[in-house]
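Subject: sequence -> structure tokens, single chain

Hey, anyone have a minute? Need the predicted structure for the following. Not urgent.
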Amino acid sequence: MQENMLEMVQAAAATALSRRARNAIILDLRQLPSFTSFFVICSGISDTQVEGISDAVLDELADHWNERPWHREGGRKADWVLLDYVDFVVHIFLEEKREYYNLERLWADAPQIEVPDVEVITEYEEDEEAYDELEGYEFDDESLFPSQPSEEK
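Reply:
Had a minute. Here:
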């Protein structure tokens, strides 16, 4: 196990919170018979948010920690995404599914580790690729949603 494993786990939890995840917790499973050392558990209010949180955690751990999950469960329109990094597992639930599975109750003997305070991202960062994808679209001023691509004449 890496020396900075706990820092990486806290970075995953903080990243989830920065994407407005709800009720993020870290469970320390090292003193319990378990297949991993830590759980990060959080929830979102929509499948789109669950996916966004998952993508943000994947990006954070790949870009800043050079870590990629060994296994991933769930995907688009998922109500539960699991990111298995072997030494820790990140669970991102829809709120209803989190209540149903109640991992906190199942692992009630595990001590909780403090999740760092974070600044919540409220605006999207400027992304040139996203703007490039919109090239050729005409926008209706009232709705701001793309209509059909304009045809070159």
